[in-house]
Protein 1
Amino acid sequence: MINANAIILPISLSLELWLLALLFRRGVRHHFPVFFSYGALLAPVTFARLLTFTNYPKYFMVFWSTDAVLLLLGLAALHEVFRWVYRAFYEFWWFRLIYYGTIVLVLFITVRNAMVHPAVQAHPVVSLVLNMGIAINLLQAGIAALFAALSKPLAIPHRRYSFGIVAGFAASSLGPFAGYFARSIFGKNVDFFTQYASAVPYILALLIWLLAFSKPEPEERAWTPPMPPDEMLRLVHGYLSVLGAKRKDDER
């Protein structure tokens, strides 16, 4: 039987190298340094996995250690893009409290759950990474959903690079979440499903990022926030004033 990694890893590595070349070409490192770091790390990680996948003990150590790093760096990269587009929202203390508080709370619950209720048939480190995977992929899906939900009422103009990055993380988050969740509940019996549940959406994310960076965007559009923070702030204050007035009317 052919090991699925013999097919998946070379495909991923080819796409990752192509993506890295595009990130260099578009100057992403100067504007989204965290996402660039994430993209630059993908190929070395996949290459290390490709070298070790035939040796399970070594592959085990390489896979789970690198997975934890990529999970955290991916979350930071998505946050970087979200903050770049919706910078004005960070002027509101309640938004910062809810946004950062939710991230910290979810990660705290994840670590605690991994210690108190470890995953079935899993090493403690693997159990922690599995729980981190569930939490971080849910957070990524939530941030991507919030990104999309805010774009319509605020009429945010489309930006090829930033919107493409968010779409890629959105596509890659749900599959791994299902895989991590199944692995934590059913143990090694679902390793085959877990592998494909993570690999297929990840390759889809790579294709989305390749599409986003395949064509250059005009310089003044590419690296200028789609809406000036001051204008966004006025819009948000306007919405809040309307909601406040409506609430007072309802109370009467």
Note: Residues 5-227 form one domain.
Protein 2
Amino acid sequence: MSLDSFIKPNPKKAPGSSVPALPSHQSAADFQSDDLLGNPTFSWEALEFEKIEKHPRWYWIMGIALLAIIGYALITNAILMAITFILIGMLGYIHAERDPRVIEIEINQKGIIVDGYMYAYDDIKSFWIYYEVEERIKILSLHSKKTFLPFVHIPVGDANPIQIRELLLNFIPEIRQELTIIDRMERMIGL
């Protein structure tokens, strides 16, 4: 695959929705290179996370679990623990109710730019694309050389994962990764 075949979709708003529609990707005839830098790029837009509608029962279960932990903290006279879990509950509720932003992702010859932040190829060990249709998982995972942020998960959205893979193979190796237990639990409880 040559570096001249990349796409720059146009963002659109979904009619009657507060969340912008994700772009649909066209055929290879619509691919273009970035004229400003002279570097070919592949770019797309995706929601920063998948919004999962939560049933009121979800809020009751999480609230009861949180109250149980706070109650335990108060019984054991761990006031700091109680305050911490109250704050965790408040932040968790705010996060659960938040709508995802549409972020821009771009792959070019120097690295991967996610919402304005550059991940240079020199700082990336490998990549893997999680694509599980049954679980609605489409994630580009970068294995970083950094100690404190070893894996960066980037949403693929409606972009073609095969094109992303073919392009990244020109710059970094593909090494199989597995979703961690925390990633699976996060999806299971709907965060």
Note: Residues 1-38 have pLDDT under 50 and may be disordered.
Protein 3
Amino acid sequence: MELYGRAPRKSWPVYCFDLLPPFGQGKNERMRERDAYRAAGSPDVRVKAVADEDAIRGNVYALLGHLLAAPPDADMLETLAAIDPPSGDRSLLTAAWRMLGEAAGRATPVALRDEFQALFIGLGRGEVVPYGSWYLTGFLMELPLARLRGDLQELGIERQAGVREPEDHAAALCDAMALMIGGDEPVAVARQAQFFGQHIEPWMGRFFRDLQQASSAHFYRAVGQLGEQFVEVERRAFGMEVPAAGERRPDA
């Protein structure tokens, strides 16, 4: 991967897991199949607020990628259920963390396997479609995917052997951002912002809102809430503007 220098940027007020990156040890077989870019990491997972903003952001992306790639097992549910955000923080993001912890406390691995199947796999297609091309064009494997592959190649990021999902899967994009932020060769924030603005910001917030509204979503409604709020935090931190209702983007 090409080395990029760091650039000054605004603060990201995000509470997250203290995951020793990269996140991913102990995954089940389906998770290993669907996990796009992550290598094996430490099983030591503790819930806390982390001072290092880059580690925080990378860990949120890693967590979202993990949950969107496969349903969490019993150990992960126990960890999520231990989430205890600061009581004085009334932000929407902190509320989303609290909702995720409560949802994890009610969930079981068996129920989550069924929920994940209904949401993302289904009979022919799941209730939600977690691909950028689908949201941006209404079809799979379209031009947005080709552009994404070009950017990933330029960044030196490629799919692991055996991964069948296209690179514009929401989990894969979260993995890519986690790598850019917390990998061995971190990418400059300006380049992260460019990647985020081109491949995540235009559609992933809508995906997370659809996930919250899906009839099969119970635990994953909280995942969608966290994802939506985190994408919004990233958008504001990167200084991006949202087009007014009915306004087209310049590249649309």
Note: The first strand starts at residue 16 and ends at 19.
Protein 4
Amino acid sequence: MCFPSTARLHTSGMSVPPSPADPGADHDAGPRADRAASEPPAPIEPAASRPRSRLRWAWWLLAYASLGLGIVGIVVPGLPTVPFVLLSAFAAARGSERLHARLLAHRQFGPMIRDWQAHGAVSRRAKWLAVSMMSACAVIMFLTSPKLWMAMTGTAIMAVVAIWLWRRPEPPADRGSR
């Protein structure tokens, strides 16, 4: 909706005077306004043809670093895998199309990433697994930490993460149970 005597925003980000068809528009804007109003808006370019970001290297570095931390998190208790893989997919979408495509096509990580990107969803199986791993880590921390406050701080952080995780929606059941 265009209000009288206001300019419309063209898709290129430049201000264009109102067209003569707009009620109450200023018709003394000249031939340039008529030409701009008669032209269709410029089409939005697909992502592949857009110029690459100057910070592409930083996204690329973040993608591979977080993927590396996610892989290490598979074997190191207390270091989560899923958040690092999701961060890697997020950064790879901006810095490495090849890595992003590989992550989406991955047998284990692909469905999880697609569910997160489409719905912000985490499967019930992943929730149970994450909470059970956090519980095991909390027990290990209470048994091995030199100070009680250290174990309590770590356990409190994991409890907050667990609450947040269980509040996330579950993916739609169109692919069947997991």
Note: The helical segments are 31-38, 56-75, 82-95, 97-105, 109-119, 124-144, 148-167.
